[in-house]
From TrEMBL, chain B:
Lineage of producing organism: Bacteria, Pseudomonadati, Pseudomonadota, Alphaproteobacteria, Hyphomicrobiales
Family designation: Belongs to the binding-protein-dependent transport system permease family.
This protein's name: ABC transporter permease
Coiled-coil ranges per UniProt: none
Localization annotation: Cell membrane
Amino acid sequence: MAMSQIKPALVAVPGSDIAVSTRNITKFYGYVEALRDLSLEFPRGQLTSLLGPSGCGKTTLLKIIGGLLEPTSGEVEVNGQTVTGPGPDRAFVFQDFALLPWASVMRNVAFGLEMRGVGRSEREDIAARYIKEVGLAGFEKAYPHQLSGGMRQRVGLARALSVDAQVLLMDEPFSAVDEQTRRKFQEDLLSLVQNENKTFIFVTHSIEEAVYVSDQIAILLPRPSRVSEIIRPSNFREKGVDNIRRDPEYLDIVDQIWSSLRSYVE
Amino acid sequence: MRQVAPVSIAGAPPGAPTAGKRSIAPSRSLVLKILSAAILFGAWEIAGRIPVSYAFPTFVESMAALFRLAADGTLWTAYAETLQPLVVGVTISALLGIAIGLWVGLSEFFDWLFSPIFIVMQAAPLAALIPLLVLAYGIGLTSKVLVVCIMAMPVIVLNTASAVRNTPESMKEMARAYLATDLTILLKIIIPAASPVIFAGLRLGISAGFIGAILAELKITPTGVGDIITFSRSIADYPTMYAAIFSIILLAVLFLNLLEWIEAVLFKGNQRGYVSD
Ligand SMILES: Nc1ncnc2c1ncn2[C@@H]1O[C@H](COP(=O)(O)OP(=O)(O)O)[C@@H](O)[C@H]1O
Ligand SMILES: [Mg+2]
């Protein structure tokens, strides 16, 4: 079998240690149970996708990991330490970008460093480097409303990268950009995962996107919300970005995920 | 999001994308302001010449009266009087109004405690309250300052509070995710995000404060500009009366322009529009 498919029992991830783990997370919004007894492990240096239909609790789980929401019960550990709130070890990329409209690209990208008390010239040097890295050199003085959706999300990405957190939490970062831009983003994300030694937790509702970018895919199902399976695509990544979408294993996994999800989609 | 910039994502930037549009905007708005003033004064002159009423002087007559008032010093002594309750009242209203507004916007308890007071204050017929104020605080400066505050403060408080309450949740969440403290969130997210609406409230409040200052002088004791208005009307010197009214409107307009300028300096980026969608 070309991929290892694991039922959501406790799994030892082969050959890597765990950067983030969630243990028995339950989350109620009033009487709505968004997550039930969810346990999941995120291997260091890899990209794990949370994939599932909308409303199944992906954002909720990501915000709990980010320390922006408190779980009703259960706990999150990052590098063996229990999460009690936002921390310097995690950086967030938001679905709606969450840029400050009154601040230039430079100030937006440097915002995280500013909050960490990094001096102005130092943080602008760092920010400038990441602005360049995401391909926005020359737009430092532009304001968010002057940028396209794709460019805005690059600003959000540069902001997350510039604080140099070990864990990147990305909530459907590409869902609001057009298809062409999204493909470019996905390719860039692959090289980012390779080059930066960071742990990526990536929320998406797109099956193709998840299979394309992930080292590990956790499929979440709603009502009650739970991890239904964990899939680790194994060997098509080495064949180069241009070949992934034609790879038989890629296509198989996409099909397989669709057949397990289809019954949950009205 | 629907719109995609004409530049390629990773391509070369089009120079400074910010420049251009903005630099001509101020001069154009100045031209428009002068033009609309000219049309207004022209209409006034024509209406005065017809005349629409024997009590309605022409623009030129009124301006002549204004220069007379300025030349013999009457105007300046009048303003020395009128500006006292106005400046004190508007300053108190702005500072206290914004402070209370922030508080009310941030805390449900203070919202519950204060909002009704200001809603009532805004709705109350001021003319009916003035006798009560005079009864309680006499006919001095205190009563006049209070009239200015009653006129100016509610809209400042209510605007500030609603602007604070409407700060986009996602921006606050972003700031928390990047380790901002509550105080930084207030200073760097909530206040800048709320500033356009706060300034709109200030503009409305200060305009109302001007009305309050004149109203106080007409209803409590005729002093300052209110005295010029009352006295010149009693002797049917309508050009002087209109000159006094015109001068207070002019002062209000100049002051509001100053406020606009302060806003532009303090919150530069805010005029650059919001990221919609
Ligand atoms: N602030 C909230 N208050 C009440 N219910 C919420 C709130 N946020 C999310 N929910 C509910 O929790 C469930 C999971 O939401 P969410 O985590 O946003 O899902 P996803 O990101 O997978 O679309 C949904 O049913 C949603 O209606
Ligand atoms: Mg979501």
